[in-house]
Amino acid sequence: MRLVRLVLKNFRSYRDADIGFGDGLLLVLGENGSGKTSILEAIRIALFKESNERIDELVHQGSESMKVSLEFVSNGNEYRVERERRRGSSTARLFHLDNPNSPPTQGDREVSREIRKILGIDGEHFLNAIYVKQGEIDQLINESAGERKKIIAKLLGIESLQTAWEGMRMIIEPSNRRRQLLEAELRRAGDIEGALKSAREIYEKKVRQKEELERKALCHRIRLEAQRARLKELDGLSEKYTEIFNGLRETEERIADRQRRVGSLNWELEQIARGEARMAALAKETRRIVPMERLGELIARREQLRSEIEKIRKEIELLESRFREVKDRIRKDIANCSRILGREVADIQAIEEAAQDEIQRMDRELKETRSQREGLVRTISSMEGGIVIVRERMEALRSAKGACPVCEAPLTEERRAGLLDEDAATIAQYQCEIERIRGEEKIIASRIEEITKRRDLVLRTVNIAALRGMTDQQTDYYDRCEERLSARADRERELSEIEREISGLESEAGVTASVDANTFRKEWDRLRLVEREYHQLTGMVNRRGRVQEELSTLQGEIGSLMKRAESLRTGISMLKYDKKAHEELREATEQTSAELHRLELGEISARAEMESATREIERLEGEMEKVKSAASEIQRIDLHIARLQKIRNLFGKDGVQRDLRMIARPIIERNMRTFFSEFNFEYSDVQLDEDYEITLFGPSGKIGVGMMSGGERIAVAIAMRLALAKALAGGAVEAIMLDEPTIHLDTQRRRDLIQVFKRLGNIPQMLVVTHDEELQEVADTTIMVRKTHGISSAQVLLPDSTTVAQ
Q1: What's the CA gap between 502 and 520, in Å, rounded?
Q2: Which of 396, 438, 455, 775 has its CA 20 to 30 A from that of 29?
Q3: Would the CA dihedral through 760, 766, 771, 774 be positive or negative?
Q4: In angstroms, how far is the first alpha carbon of the chain from the final one?
Q5: CA nearest to 719, candidates 673, 758, 757, 751
Q6: How many CA atoms lie within 13 A of 472 on its CB side?
């Protein structure tokens, strides 16, 4: 298979990219994170929908869908596969470009199945064949033979066979555990037989116990019935006795209650007579209460108004003082703003306009000065970068041997010394110019600091909001002062009216307004007590008629209740009820009932124990049946385990794994010999042993990997990887993809790898993803990848650096 064209729409960091692939060595070149590896990932997704991340995460941020389209050639036929992903859904189509009339294959599964049929292998083996991961070349060079064998086994799929061999243990283990349980069952046969005999003996004992309890319970039931019949008769007499006795007690209590009430009413009539005489003495004092109450209210209000007037006077003085203070502060702040701004201002509006003009002027000057400083800083940074480049070039010149590291022209010592002197002079010129520019930058920085301080001073001093707040505060103090003056006038008018009303009430109340508060309060409290006593006496006197009427009614009720009590006493003597005999019979009945209940519980317990013994017998008999069937089940399990173990051995190292290694090793060795011969080294043969140890045969005999040069080792690693690819692909390798093949190689090995690529010519298409610019010298086509503001782009360059696609 060879790649022809890749089109990306909103895929990862690519918005829109169209990349054409030619034959030969194709170099995908760019910085780390620019989007190089995304091209390989897009090829994997297009062919097999394989990615290390969820498909939804591959859609470019801010887009609703992504699309990947890949054109490729396989077995001389040309195809195009398209995969599109929207949020929550996906589509896939495969076109046969050699036959435009053929309908496309549609659907993810159908397209993937058709591609596997076209390529002849599935996605995992296809990627193992043509896709060389980062660091894989370095591992094939530097790892031991054992580790190299593991890498090759993983690529060939042998590792999955080992995983299957280990997984079979988990399938066999449940059968082994079941067999162990069955063996334990066989060992329990004697214990179960003894437990069964004991359970049967317990059952017989409980049957005899239950029959004895049933006999005793029958006797107690007969006795209990006779006792309950006699008890029922006595309960009837007891109810009648209790009814008559309670009626007599209630009647006697009612008689006593009414006699007590008669005595209480006679005492109350005596108190009413005394109350009438006392009311006549208190009548004069009660007429002073109403004017006295009003006078007290007026005196209290007069004192309250005097206190409020004095409080308002102090508030007015405080407001006037604060009004003057705020006025002085406003005048001082306006004068200070005039001094800071450098011009005379009369009010807040003028201050605000002057401050805005000054701030705008300083902002313009700051912007111009900072722009000048940034230009100087960029110039210094550019010159320092130039110094670093020149120093790196000098270091390369010092270590170069025979050829210029830049142009690879012959390099003499005289030429080297001349170039080093030129570079030293260039560095000195840069350093002198940097010192001069830094001096200018310090002057400009000082001017920026001066303007910034001046601007901060204006912002800190000219506080328009504070001035407006003080003006509002001044107005508020003035309004509040006017309000309190009006309130004082209102209270003084009310005080005058109260003084006139107090003068008119003094004679009525029997006390002067000038009396001290303590004396007034005592007199008022005395009058309140007189009033309360008078009202109480009035209520008592008004009850005289009701008391006399109730007294007459009670005397009639007492005569009727005495006649009823005598009749109830006669009824009690005629019942002839014996309470002691009744209680003794009740106790005997309760004892008989309790004993019967105990016997019935014993019956229930014996019956339950019989049922428990029956269940235990049935359980043990079932256990005996299980034990008898355990032996035959063990035989079946042994046969099952033997079959599973045989299957497991097939996946083991001595089974299919060994066969696959034996088949693959000579194929890999043969393919490796073919590829290695193209590098034109002075070796006649290359061989692999069973542990994949590599041996070369040359003029000086055979040598191992440790004796090879760096270039020879890289050539061997490349030949081995291409041999693996050809073995996995099942035929000729038309294309191979290498991801950062130089990532773990030092400078010399990277150069050796470049030389190996120059000599390699039997792979029609090699796609190399790298950030190493040295590989450009051997590339037939370079795909330059860049990322700008988060968007990746790809340009296809021919060897003369001409852009042909984007």
Answers
A1: 14
A2: 396
A3: positive
A4: 24
A5: 673
A6: 6
